[in-house]
UniProtKB/TrEMBL annotation:
GO molecular function: acyltransferase activity, transferring groups other than amino-acyl groups
Keywords from the UniProt entry: Transferase
Domain N-acetyltransferase: 3-158
Coiled-coil region: none
UniProt keyword Transcription regulation present: no
Record's protein name: GNAT family N-acetyltransferase
Transferase found in the keyword field: yes
InterPro entries: Acyl_CoA_acyltransferase (IPR016181), GNAT_dom (IPR000182)
Domain of life where this protein originates: Bacteria
Source species of the chain: Gulosibacter macacae
Length: 722
């Protein structure tokens, strides 16, 4: 049956929900189906401006949309995020994908006003990612997937074509629009995400090779601004080159007000309207505990937590008040205003958003604590809480948070062991990932009010979040193949010992100590590690396979530099082993040189990895051999928790144990400045990233069971060895 590619209408909401549900897209991936009304809510909150669907007369078979909001970021007024790209499985090898892209491009060209399209894409998605590259989307050189697993790709083709049409008055926009298709970019089927993006004369530029059939040219474009710098035509009727469009780079935001609070905290107001709660610490940059972008009007803009494209310039006025410190925040021609109030000797912060009479205001305060705990109080006064593991607790709906039901809670509590804060609010609250929570007006014109109380006591937790279990006593369980249920005594040797090299084959070294057998690729990482008959970790080296959001993975453990984990836009990035530090043989008592890593044995079943990336962050990444979804015991702020397998989540912890394929457990304890483990639990496996702001020491021990791992973590939390 022929498929009609057409513009989405509101009457399609139910059919679009069915398409998303049967393709496990959005919350359906985790077993929660969408309704037509929830689709409408997502369209409104993300400010979807165009949507094209493929309709076979019975069902919608595909769709693609352009929106102001991506779910985590919001685009500038002259930009859109492309997303909601879904095609039924039976049509994925058809021409439907190309037709959807062609039509949404053509619609955008006809409408005008948008110069840049952005996509957040998983580079390991072998079906969609190459298509994005073929239609002209490009990444900055060296771009890594962000904490959520996405690389941001950019296409300035709409602006390029708009400039060409304006420079050639005889061009018919409708005639040009219908010639646009996904084949006009001269690119192969397997291209580098940064292909054609280079530095020239101090500017990052991208070459767009365009072939419409009767016109062949290359446009040289400023990659940051999207302006055409040069045009090189090789065939077709000569056309005029456009003048460079006037597009200004956004000015960096700066502090407008820093308000001292209790116990070394501060509230910082930036000139773009962003508000941050800081904790000042001697000898290091302030720790950002909470960040909130400027609130938006529903249907006019989209809320953002990582990056806000529409840059306001706000005015801050201090208000005289005998009862509290007050500041009013105003942005010209904006539908909302804000007020900040400080009381109780700097322990209480009130953030009040006041929309115009006919406007529903949306705010998205984002808690940025790392190793932390979180709790919610229900209507009956009971507190439920546990470690912060976004995706599990709090639950995470990704780009579809607008479809969530209102939060059935009256207060929230967060703590990273140093700062604790209790939050209350007026307005309709919604939980999602690290939102504190997200809030919106109860009706048009209604205020949204978030109250933060610093120094709040730990609430009495009466229930645990689903999938989390507080460890109060070690669980006794026999590992696969064990002949007795009795737990052997836990004996761990922590004295480092040099590993013996038993063979060298090119860049591969075979190392040995007791029952431990290892293979190291000196330019990539630790290929595999066995302890007796237990495979602890392994990679397909020299072959490479996708894993999670890594387009390629060759080894079981690798060490890399990383950008700062606190970066608001990226968070903890994914890094491939193609960026690996060099391996050097260890000298006991001497750490690695900057830019390298080392291995040492810790008794018969332990391994010590030391690395120094000489960068913002040193990272050690590893993929334990779990055989699928991982089963964890984690240590957070001195408490231990069992985490059920099966549901994707991620989060920072102090230490962890992961059950291996054969029932043994791998215990991981990092040491270093701001050391943590960042865990990513996926249905296909586990990625562990140990982090430190400087040299990093990761100690790994293989123990007989999860029960022994729990005792080991309990001992480590008390500051001793197991």
């Amino acid at each position: 049956m022929a498929i009609e590619v057409r513009t989405y209408t509101d009457a399609d909401a139910g059919a679009l929900a069915d398409l998303l549900n049967r393709n496990a897209y959005g919350p359906a991936e985790f077993g929660t189906t969408l309704t037509a009304e929830q689709v409408r809510q997502v369209f409104a909150e993300r400010r979807i401006t165009e949507c094209i669907v493929g309709d076979d007369g019975t069902e919608l078979r595909g769709c693609i949309a352009l929106a102001i909001g991506s779910g985590r970021r919001a685009a500038a007024p002259h930009e859109r995020f492309a997303g909601l790209f879904v095609i039924d499985d039976r049509y994925r090898n058809s021409m439907l994908a190309g037709k959807l892209f062609r039509e949404v491009f053509a619609d955008r060209i006809r409408a005008g006003g948008v110069r840049t399209l952005r996509i957040e894409a998983n580079p390991a998605n072998v079906r969609a990612f190459p298509l994005y590259l073929r239609v002209g989307f490009r990444a900055r050189p060296g771009a890594r997937p962000d904490e959520d697993g996405y690389v941001e790709l950019v296409s300035h083709l709409p602006g390029v074509i708009d400039d060409l049409i304006r420079a050639n008055p005889g061009a018919d926009v409708d005639e040009v629009a219908v010639k646009l298709n996904w084949r006009m970019m001269r690119a192969g089927r397997d291209v580098d995400p940064a292909a054609g993006v280079v530095v020239r004369d101090g500017r990052l530029v991208v070459d767009y090779p365009i072939d419409t059939g009767d016109l062949e040219l290359t446009a040289v474009v400023d990659h940051e601004l999207g302006t055409v710098l040069a045009l090189e035509q090789t065939s077709g009727t000569p056309i005029a080159s456009p003048a460079e469009a006037t597009v200004s780079a956004p000015e960096p935001c700066s502090e407008r007000e820093r308000i001292a609070l209790a116990d070394g905290h501060a509230l910082v107001i930036f000139d773009d309207g962003t508000i941050e709660l800081h904790r000042n610490e001697p000898g290091r940059a302030p720790t950002v505990l909470l960040r909130e972008r400027w609130p938006v009007a529903l249907g006019e803009d989209a809320p953002a937590v990582r990056r806000q494209g529409h840059r306001r310039r706000i005015r801050v006025h201090e208000v005289t008040d005998a009862q509290a410190q007050r500041w009013q925040l105003v942005a010209d021609d904006d539908a909302v205003t804000r007020e900040v109030r400080i009381g109780h000797e700097g322990h209480a912060i009130d953030l009040v958003t006041s929309p115009n009479r006919d406007v529903v205001a949306l705010t998205a305060p984002w808690v940025t604590m790392r190793v932390a705990e979180h709790a919610l109080r229900d209507d009956g006064g009971e507190w439920r809480g546990g470690p912060v593991l976004p995706g599990l607790w709090p639950n995470d709906w990704g780009d579809f948070e607008a479809a969530r039901e209102p939060l059935a809670a009256t207060a929230a509590w967060w703590s990273d062991g140093i700062t604790s804060m209790r939050l209350g609010w007026t307005g309709i609250a919604r939980a999602d990932s690290r939102s504190a929570p997200a809030l919106h007006s109860a009706h048009p014109g209604a205020e949204v009010h978030l109250r933060i109380e610093l120094g709040a006591e730990t609430p009495p937790l009466t229930t645990n979040p689903e999938g989390l279990h507080r460890v109060t006593a070690a669980l006794r369980r026999r590992r696969v193949g064990a002949s007795s249920t009795a737990e052997p005594a836990l004996v761990v040797d922590t004295a480092p010992t040099r590993l013996d090299t038993v063979a060298e084959r090119g860049t591969v070294r075979e190392l040995h100590y007791g029952e431990q057998q290892l293979r190291v690729a000196t330019d990539a990482g630790l290929i595999d590690w066995r302890v007796g008959d237990t495979t602890v970790l392994r990679g397909p080296y020299p072959s490479a396979t996708p894993f999670g959001s890594l387009a390629t993975r060759r080894t079981g453990l690798w060490c890399t530099p990383l950008a700062a984990r606190d970066d608001a836009d990226q968070g903890v990035e994914w890094a491939e082993d193609r960026e690996a530090l060099r391996w050097t043989e260890a000298t006991i008592g001497t750490g690695p040189q900057p830019g390298s890593w080392q291995l040492e044995a810790l008794g018969a079943s332990g391994l010590r990895v030391r690395a120094d990336a000489a960068a913002a962050e040193t990272a050690i990444h590893l993929v334990p051999d779990t055989g699928g979804a991982g089963e964890f015991v984690i240590s957070v702020l001195g408490r231990r928790w069992r985490v059920d397998p099966g549901h994707p989540w991620r989060g920072a912890v102090d230490a962890a144990a992961i059950v291996l394929r054969d029932g043994r457990a791998l215990v991981l304890v990092p040491t270093g400045a701001r050391a943590e483990l960042f865990l990513r639990a996926m249905t296909t496996g586990v990625l562990v990233t140990a982090l430190a702001a400087g040299p990093l020491d990761l100690r790994m021990h293989v123990v007989e069971s999860r029960a022994q791992a729990e005792r080991f973590l309990a001992s480590a939390a008390r500051g001793g060895e197991a």
